[in-house]
Amino acid sequence: MYYFTYDPWIGKLLYLEDFYVMEPYRGLGIGSEILKRLSQIAIKTNCSCMHFLVVIWNKPSIEYYVRRGALDLSTEEGWHLFRFDKENLLRMASGK
To answer: What is the DSSP string of 25-39?
Structure first.
């Protein structure tokens, strides 16, 4: 699952929301083919890059992406992911 978004510093990008290959099918080139197709879509639609998240404990996936040229922005650029939950959104929206 993916969608397009825009960053004022880097322009249009493809955001990869979910990408999972079930264990019995790993090592068959499925992941590489999915990344190839997503890369083609990103290039065809004039995206400057593709962003995605990987949980910190998923070392095999991190290594998989890094081997293919992905940059870990948490170490390369020092970015951290933050979230406001619904309770805090309601609190801020009410001006409290």
So the answer is: GTTSSHHHHHHHHHH
Q: Are the CB atoms for 50 and 14 separated by under 8 Å?
A: yes
Coil, strand or helix: which one is 8?
A: coil
d(CA 72, CA 13): 16
Which residues, listed in sequence order, are joined to residue 49 by a DSSP beta bridge? 13
pTM of structure: 0.81
Supply the DSSP symbol for 43.
H
C-alpha–C-alpha distance, residues 81 and 63, integer Å: 20
- pLDDT tens digit string along 24-74? 999 999 999 999 999 999 999 999 999 999 988 999 999 999 999 999 888
Distances (CA, A) of 6 to 58, 75, 87: 27, 22, 27
State the amino acid at position 51 in one-letter form. H
Please give the angle made by the CA atoms of 5, 19 and 88, to the nearest 5 degrees: 55
Active-site amino acid positions: 65
